[in-house]
Specification:
Blueprint: H1 2-8, H2 11-35, H3 40-63, H4 72-95, H5 100-123
Length: 130
């Protein structure tokens, strides 16, 4: 129990836990849309929009311990950058012949890292390092 509490005191750990839930949610939407015949860029856009709405409060409150209102535009901007980064990687992998669902799974780790850095530096930058 003490180890779990200690681990949760680190922002990157909280980000990975909360982000993991959001990633499963977003990837499920992406995969469902691709399997239903959607273009991967449209599927990624819809999954990203759903992820923004789903993740706004949990990221702010649980990861960055912020209850400040008015951060939604910056949050959306950070997600827009993450989306563009993710889409670029996805198109690169698809162009190299990697199957779409596998390509998106491979895009997740670097996109998560970019997202964390954007949230930390652009959206919740005035918060302590807790």
């Amino acid at each position: 129990m003490a180890l779990a509490r200690r681990l949760l005191s680190y922002r990157p750990v909280r980000f990975l836990l909360v982000g993991g839930i959001n990633t499963v949610f977003g990837y499920a939407i992406f995969a469902a849309l691709v399997l239903l015949g959607s273009d991967s860029a449209l599927a990624l856009l819809i999954a990203t929009i759903a992820g923004v709405i789903f993740n706004y409060f949990t990221t702010g409150r649980l990861v960055f311990r912020s209850r400040r209102r008015g951060l939604f535009p910056a949050f959306v901007g950070a997600y827009a950058i993450s989306y563009a980064f993710n889409l670029g990687l996805l198109r690169l992998l698809e162009g190299a012949g990697v199957q779409t669902l596998l390509a998106q799974a491979l895009c997740l780790p670097p996109t998560v890292a970019v997202s964390y850095l954007l949230m930390k530096s652009l959206v919740f930058r005035n918060r302590s390092a807790s």
